[in-house]
């Protein structure tokens, strides 16, 4: 004897429920796809901004203490306009160093035995320092900054190796990555840098 199987036809409610389920899955996939595309675009824009306009760096070392500490994360702004007192990042032997601009092209820099810095005969106001020191220097003062170069120094004058030493010397404009504008880490120390 042969059994006949009859196919059960689903009810209208079951068909509608299945249709709604399929439409929900389709909407979910579209939303997921759109979200992933949006995240990719945002990430690409962030990387583009970071490399072209706002490089992000992690501080390594103590030459900029007390202003910046080891492992701080900072943001630089790419610009070619630098003034005395600006913190800048610049390329030196495949690394980026951070120092403060003391003088620009043509300025006369003089540093006395106590570490007081004079630019064009005037004592430089340096409220960011906790102590002054002559530091490691092999220059003869007064010293004139060459054209298209900047004289830079670290805030920790006792330990910083900077333009006072011919090992680094004055930095060329082309070496400068940008001006430090913001500390973003540690989170309890987020601040604008000036």
Overview of this structure, please?
With 194 residues, this protein is α+β, with helices and mostly antiparallel strands. It is 21% helix and 27% strand. It contains one helix and twelve strands; from the N terminus they run H-E-E-E-E-E-E-E-E-E-E-E-E. It has one helix at 12-52; strands spanning 56-58, 73-77, 87-92, 95-103, 108-111, 117-119, 122-123, 143-144, 149-153, 171-172, 176-185, 191-192. Strands 1, 2, 3, 4, 9, 10, 11 and 12 form an eight-stranded antiparallel β-sheet that branches. Strands 7-6-5-8 form a four-stranded antiparallel β-sheet, with no helix packed on it. Strand 3 and strand 4 form a beta hairpin. 21% of the residues are buried. The model has no long low-confidence stretch (mean pLDDT 86).
Quick overview of this protein structure:
This protein has 194 residues and is an alpha+beta fold. It is built from one helix and twelve strands. The mean pLDDT is 86.
Set out the fold topology.
Elements: H1 12-52, E1 56-58, E2 73-77, E3 87-92, E4 95-103, E5 108-111, E6 117-119, E7 122-123, E8 143-144, E9 149-153, E10 171-172, E11 176-185, E12 191-192
| Beta strand % | 25-35%
Structural class category? alpha+beta
Count helical runs.
1
Element order, helices and strands? HEEEEEEEEEEEE
Strands, total number:
12
- Kindly report the average pLDDT value: 86
Which spans of ≥5 residues are poorly predicted at pLDDT below 50?
none
- State the helicity in percent bands: 10-25%
N-end to C-end Cα span: 95 Å
Rg measurement, Å = 30 Å
Biggest sheet details: 8 strands, antiparallel
Based on Cα principal axes, name the global outline: rod-shaped
């Amino acid at each position: 004897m042969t059994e006949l199987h009859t196919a059960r036809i689903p009810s209208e409610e079951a068909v509608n429920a299945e249709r709604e389920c399929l439409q929900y899955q389709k909407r979910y996939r579209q939303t997921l796809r759109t979200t992933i595309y949006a995240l990719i675009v945002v990430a690409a824009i962030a990387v583009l901004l970071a490399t072209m306009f706002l490089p992000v760096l992690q501080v390594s070392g103590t030459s900029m203490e007390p202003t910046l500490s080891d492992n701080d994360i900072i943001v630089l702004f790419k610009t070619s306009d630098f003034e005395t007192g600006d913190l800048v990042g610049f390329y030196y032997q495949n690394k980026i160093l951070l120092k403060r601009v003391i003088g620009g092209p043509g300025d006369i820099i003089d540093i006395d035995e106590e570490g007081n810095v004079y630019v064009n005969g005037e004592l430089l106001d340096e409220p960011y320092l906790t102590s002054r020191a002559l530091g490691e220097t092999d220059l003869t003062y007064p010293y004139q900054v060459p054209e298209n170069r900047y004289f830079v120094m670290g805030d920790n004058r006792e330990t910083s190796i900077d333009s006072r030493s011919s090992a680094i010397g004055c930095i060329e404009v082309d070496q400068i990555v940008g001006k430090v504008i913001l500390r973003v880490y540690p989170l309890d120390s987020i601040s604008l840098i000036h």
